[in-house]
Amino acid sequence: LAAGPEIDAGAVVADLRELDALTGGPAGARRVCWGEDWRLARDWLGEKLGEIGLTPERDEAGNVWAYLEGEREPALALGSHLDSVPSGGWLDGCLGVAAALGVLRAWAGTGRRPPRTLALLDCADEEGARFGRSLFGSSALAGSLDPGALASLTDGEGRAIGEVLAGNGVALERALDAGRRLERIGGYLELHIEQGPVLESEGLPCAAVAGCAGVEREILAFSGQAAHAGTTPMDRRRDAGLAAAETALAVERVAVDGGGVGTTGLVELDPGIVTAVPGAARLSIDLRHADPEALARVHGGIHATAHAAAERRRCSLAIEPLWRIAPIRFDPGLVALAVAATAAAGGRAEPLISGALHDAAELARALPVAMIFSSSSRGLSHAKEEDTPEPDLIAAIEAFGELASAAAATDL
Ligand SMILES: [Zn+2]
To answer: How far is the CA of 82 from the centre of ligand 1 (A)?
Structure first.
C-alpha cells in the first residue's frame, strides 16, 4: 500500500462523540435531513473544515463538498452522509464523513500536497426519513434522480418537498445540475457501519464491500370475496387472506433456497374483522440478492407461487411495483485495495455484499467506487442502540485511511 500520512483514528472517534453530544445523545441522533439539527451538524462540519483551512461548498442538490488540492486530478472523493433517521444511531453516515475529514486533516497536517486532490463529500438526505426518498443527493449526482417524480411528496406535517428544500437553499428542479461536480472526480470511497451481524459474529473489526444487493419491491394485491365467517362453508370461500399467507411463507422459503433475503413487512386484510373471510389482501414483498440472475429467479418463483395460490383460492392477483434496483458491483481495482487495507487491519479476507443501499451505490453508476464496513454491535442500526466497539472503529478508520492513500496514488 502506498505511503501517506497516518490518519488519527482517535481524533475521528472524538469528532464523532462531539457530534453526538451536539445533535444526538441518549435518545438517539436527531439529524433528520433538511431540519435544524442537521443544519447544526453541517455547521459543525464547516467549523472542522475551517480548522484545516478548507471552506465547504454546496452543490445544487444540497451536497457539501470540500477540496484539498493535490498534485493532479481527477480528484478522489471520500464521504458519506451526516443526516440520520429520527432517534437514529451515532455512527450511521457520520462515521464516513468524519473519516473523510480525518484523511484530509492528516494531509493538511503534513504541509505536503496529496498525490491527487481529495474531495470530502457529505451527501444530502441519504436516509429519506422525511419524504420517503432515500439517496437524494447521491442520486442527483449520479443523474438517476427524477425531480418531477418527487415534486408531489409531502412530509408527515403535509409540507411539500419543494418548499422544504427551498428553505434549505435547494431548488428541486435544478438538483440534477449537481452532477457537474463529478466531472472533477475520478473515484469515491466510503466508510460505513455494517448495520448487520456478520462481522460481529465472525469476531472481525472490518471488511471491504464488493457491491450492493439488488432489490425488487412490490405490493401483491389479492382480491376474493368477503363473506360471513359462520355461514360460508370452507369449500365455498374465496379467501384472499390465505392466498397472501401462502405467498408470505413462499417468500421466506424461496429466498432461503435462493441464497438471498426476502421480507413481507406489510400485510393488510379487508374488511379486517374477526367475523369475516378476507375479501382482499395486500402483501408487500422486498427481495434482495447480490446476483441479478438469482434475484430474477427468486422474484419469478414468488410470482409463480402467488399466481398459483390466487388461482387455487379463486382470487385475482394484481402486482403493483414499488421500487427496484439492479445489483451493483463496485470497482474491482478499488475493492482489491480495500481488501488489502482491511486485511492488514485484522479484517475479513473476503469482501462482503451490502444488503442495505448507500450513497456509494448511486455513485457507482458514475464512478469507480469501493466501501469499507466496520462491525456493528448486535447488528443494530437506525436505532439509538447502534454501536461499534471502539477497537473495531479504530481498525476500520485506519483501514480507510490506508485505502484512501493507496487509491490516491493509483490512476483513477
Ligand atoms: Zn447510512
So the answer is: 8
pLDDT of the residue at 142: 98
- Which amino acid appears at position 61 of this protein? A
Closest CA to 127 of 405, 395, 381: 381
What's the gap in Å between 302 CA and the centre of ligand 1?
29
Residue 80 Cα to ligand 1 middle (Å): 7
d(CA 75, ligand 1 centre) in Å: 23
Give the pLDDT score at 371.
98
Pairwise CA distance, residues 209 & 106, whole Å: 24
pLDDT for 256: 94
Kindly state the cell numbers that stand for 152.
Answer: 408531489
Supply the pLDDT for residue 3. 73
> How far, in Å, from the CA of 314 to the mean position of ligand 1?
44
Q: What is the 3-state secondary structure (H, E, C) of the chain?
A: CCCCCCCCHHHHHHHHHHHHHHHCCCCCECCCCCCHHHHHHHHHHHHHHHHCCCCCEECCCCCEEEEECCCCCCEEEEEECCCCCCCECCCCCHHHHHHHHHHHHHHHHHCCCCCCCEEEEECCCCCCCCCCCCCHHHHHHHCCCCHHHHCCCECCCCCEHHHHHHCCCCCHHHHHHHHHHHHHEEEEEEEEECCCCHHHHHCCCEEEEEEECEEEEEEEEEECECEECCCCCHHHCECHHHHHHHHHHHHHHHHHHHCCEEECCCEEEECCCCCEECCEEEEEEEEEECCHHHHHHHHHHHHHHHHHHHHHCCCEEEEEEEEEECCEECCHHHHHHHHHHHHHCCCCCCCEEECCCCHHHHHCCCCCEEEEEECCHHHCCCCCCCCCCHHHHHHHHHHHHHHHHHHHCCCC
Residues of the chain below pLDDT 70: 1-2
Give me ligand 1 centre to Cα 223, in Å.
Answer: 38
Alpha carbon of 315 to ligand 1 centroid (Å)? 41
pTM of the model: 0.90
Q: What is the pLDDT of residue 2?
A: 54
What's the gap in Å between 194 CA and the centre of ligand 1? 9
Check: CB of residue 276 under 8 Å from CB of residue 229.
Answer: yes
The Å distance, Cα 229 to ligand 1 centre, comes to 47
Tell me, in angstroms, the distance from the centre of ligand 1 to residue 127's CA: 7
**Distance (Å) from CA 308 to ligand 1 centroid:** 39
